[in-house]
Fold this protein.
Amino acid sequence: MIIVKPVPPDAFTSVHDNDGNTGWLHDCGAFAYSPNQPRRCGVCWSAGRTSWAHNGSWQRAYVIRQTSEVA
């Protein structure tokens, strides 16, 4: 399972996942890999929510892979 976790604002200066990638979480819940804050949200843009797509409400986030143990 893959989990997206927001990063506390004072915790890191740069955020990387297990593969060394950086990411951002949009207010709508979309996640995007990008070293810099994305200009617009692709999910909101595709859904026609153009005012949301450009609102800049991004938060640094990272992705972790959680392995489930099968008994």
